[in-house]
Amino acid sequence: MRPASFEYHRARSLEHALELLAEFGDDGRPIAGGQSLVPMMNFRLARPAHLVDIDKLPLAGIEADGPTLRIGALTRHEDYFGHPLIAEHFPAILDAVHYIGHPTIRRNGSTGGSISHADPTAELPAVAVLYDAEIVARSASEERRIPAAEFFLSAYVTALEPGEMVVALEFPLPPQNSAGSFIELGERSGDFATASVGISIEHDGVSVVRAAMVCSGADLVPIRAPEVEALLAGQPLAAPPAAEAGSSFAASIDPANDHIASAEYRRALIAQLTQRAIVAACTRALEKS
Amino acid sequence: MTEITLTVNGIDKTVDAEPRRLLADMLRQEFGLSGVHIGCAHGACGCCTVHLDGTPRLSCLTFAVQCDGATITTVEAMGGALAEHPLQLAFRSEHGLQCGYCTPGFIMTLAPFVDDMVAQRRMPDDGEIREAMSGNICRCTGYHGIVAAVRKAIGAGLGKDA
């Protein structure tokens, strides 16, 4: 298992990278940590003719910019741990990052890489959809912001155009009274997830004011659960209708039936994960209040 | 071909690299470092772990051309000719290996973890040790011996028995 031939280019700056990507179009791919792209190339599922190495460009960092949290594309998964803004405002992201691969993958893999790769059960795409993030994409000619809900089109397919590259994620900062959780099950620690559920709630110390839910493993992209979100609004934090939410969401999906799990198993699993994620988020809300 | 210079186990060498050449293959073939084992070639087994600029890296998921100017350490540089790094000694005494295929990867993944724990002056619980080695697969030992070896090596660093 070795990759097909390609030409290698080390970008000297973001502008240089974008020029090269514009020149190569569909035949070019940026590479940073390579933790998703290189396995695809080794399997020859990906055969880019040109790799543009952006690994050393200054695109890393997690910082608040007014009402948004901006995470640079070359921020490594490991950098999320212990970051005060993530810990304070985005508990579901902090939970989710623990499930990404294993320590060596988390040290080298990048945020932009995970988002662009768009594995159907990857964690960062799921939390981007959960928290209504925008994906900031640059090309040689323009910069545009793509809502996460419109970015992930199918398994490994995104709204990125040839010549475009993810440079950052922007998350709107949740209000002060918010909590969240993210729960995932895979066959083994670090494996691709069979399914995962993320919950984010705003609350008044007693009841849920507004809820958001995302699920990976129910479809080819992470999906929101508007019925569950509506059901949870106004419900008491101490006794949310978590089981009802789980079973009604599970009844509404049509998950894959494959060698990892049957559709029936996935549906039951997602009902359980939904229930547990809701309880975990509400429990955290009560503990914080 | 691209000309690159690597500092491998303390020795600088300039080599021609076809871009698609994996760092793992480069280390094995051009540097003769057969301790870099290639188990799966897609980042699932951890056997090919080396240190790139001081931190663990899967050499099967790294192109050699990406490493121009980098410093690389492989298992051959650990513990001298007799493999006497405290973690290697502990693997031996605690039955941390059987066939040995995965061992270089475990050593390279876990040596920085051992150093980190010793620097923090604390003994991790088994859950933390298992998390630290979760990217490495061993088909012989059932992992108990490896966990024991990590505890022993950290204990040695802390100056007491684990």
Walk me through the structure:
- The complex is a heterodimer of chains A (289) and B (162).
- Chain A is an alpha+beta fold and 289 residues long.
- Chain A has 3 domains: 46 residues, Uridine Diphospho-n-acetylenolpyruvylglucosamine Reductase, domain 2; 111 residues, Uridine Diphospho-n-acetylenolpyruvylglucosamine Reductase, domain 3, CATH 3.30.465.10; 111 residues, 2-Layer Sandwich (Enolase-like, domain 1).
- Chain A is 35% helix and 26% strand.
- In chain A, strands 4-5-10-6-7 form a 5-stranded antiparallel beta sheet.
- The radius of gyration of chain A is 19 Å and the shape is globular.
- By secondary structure, chain B is of the alpha+beta class.
- Chain B has 2 domains: 76 residues, Ubiquitin-like (UB roll); 79 residues, DNA polymerase, domain 1 (Orthogonal Bundle), CATH 1.10.150.120.
- In chain B, 34% of the residues lie in helices and 15% in strands.
- Chain B is built from 5 helices and 5 strands, in the order ββαβββαααα.
- A 5-stranded mixed beta sheet of chain B has the order 2-1-5-3-4, with helices on both faces.
